[in-house]
Every structure is written in C-alpha cells, then in structure tokens.
Amino acid sequence: MTVTTAHTVSTAVTVADATIPYRVEGDGPRLVLVHGTGPTADLTWGALLGRFTDRFTVVLPDLSGTEPVRDDGTPLTLDRLARQLIAVIEATDDGAPVALAGFSQGAPVAAAAAALRPDLVDRLVMIAGWGRPDEEYVRNLMATWRAITDPDAFGRFALLTGFSRPFLNGIGHAQVEQLAGNLPPTANLLRQLDLNLRIDLRELLPRITARTLSIGLTQDATIPVEHARELHAALPGSRYAEIDSGHVVVFEQPDELVRLVRGFLLEQPDAQAPAGEDATA
C-alpha cells in the first residue's frame, strides 16, 4: 500500500522474507538516510528531515531489526540489510545515483550497499561507523549490552554509552529519565546487537567508488572515534571530519552534523575540502 500526502510518500518493498517500509519526502536529488541500532529511521532522522528536504528528495527506509519490519526473525547479516537498502534505492529510481548517509550501524550498511552496487551510489557519508569485528572494546560493549535482561538497566546502559557526560548533565534529570526508557530490549534490537558483533567491511571497502565522507565523534563511548578514522584511511581520496559529541550526534550536535553533511553533498566534484575536513587518505 502507498500513502501520499503533499510531497510525502509512504510505501514498502518486499525483499526476500521482509517487507521494508520507507518514506519519501522533499524535492531534488535522492538522499537515503539509514538508521542505526534500535530506533526507526524516523526516530533517528525525523528531527533533521526539514534540514535536507529543501534540496533533496529524502528516502527514509526501516530495515530488518526495527519494529515496523516483518521478516522471518532469523539472524541479521550485513549483506541482508545492504540488499534491503539496495532494493529501496531501486524502488525509488529516478535515473540518477543516490547519496547515502548512514549513522552507527547504518554506516557499515550504507557502505556495504555502496560496495555491492557502486553504480547506484555517488556519495557516501558514514557517521560513527566501524568496519571490523575484532576490536575488543566494541566487542565487549556490544556483548555486555546484549546480555542485560533488565529493561531499565538495558536502557540506562544505552544512555550512558550513547550520550556524552556534558550532554546528559545539560538536559536535566527529567529528560534523562525519558531517554532512559526509549530503548527496551526487544527481540529485534537483540538481533541488531548480534549483528554488531559480526560486522566486517574489510573485503568490501576496496569496491566503494562513491565520493565518501567519514565523520568521527570525539566523545563517542559506543564506537570510539578511531574507527571512523580507520574507515577514512581505508578509502583513498575520502574526506574526514570530527564532531565534539557523544555517539548519538543527531541529538547532541544536530547543527554541526547537518552543516558537514550538507556541505559535502552539495559540494561540486572538483571543489577543495571544506574547512574542518581532511582530504588526505
């Protein structure tokens, strides 16, 4: 079923066992925004949507592991999510390649899609991404989070690792308590955490041809900033930028994030690196 309201279209595409819903809003070249672990695309990107729809047709898919998606419940794989993302890109085809921006788990998913179908993607933004499963800090963080069974403790662990100390102290107790209850340990979320333990981009990265920006977060306690730097170093000619933020930069530093992403996407191909970005490999 397709629902259309003004410039917004909500529909879905079937990929193997899964029905993948997505929303399309705005006008201009396509920009596909990919969510991270847990929240839907709208919860991740919804507050920033109006910052992009003036120049882009924004596509917001919900992939397997989010609550709106119905599938067979089997373990997730990077390839499976990337194929779902590719199907959404093909379903919204306007004759031109897309820009992809992925946050957290969405960063390696977007990168995998760009590697598997380089003809479909001309720009790639990876925000707080990572590309290998053998870093003990990330492995133990995800395993610990996965093992927490108490819903309140599960949400508070996500809170403490997802946001910086200055941000939490700055928003006050009432809002902290509200955030703590936003992420219960659903079966789908646990599937996403299982995937986070296995994500490996190393064989796919050489296949990426899109112009790429990797954004690292200097106060990130979930995915340390060194991982974003590694992704940048693995892609010759890519851009790199850092934001002083905890992991959930879409809430902590939305203005700086939008500035960097818009600047990169609207930049002409032969332009020099914008201020604050590194064009070296």
Automatic annotation (TrEMBL):
One of its GO terms (molecular function) is hydrolase activity. Residues 31-259 form the AB hydrolase-1 domain. The keyword Hydrolase applies. It comes from the Bacteria. Keywords: Hydrolase. InterPro entries: AB_hydrolase_1 (IPR000073), AB_hydrolase_fold (IPR029058), AB_hydrolase_sf (IPR050266). This is Alpha/beta hydrolase. It comes from Kitasatospora nipponensis. The lineage of its organism: Bacteria, Bacillati, Actinomycetota, Actinomycetes, Kitasatosporales.
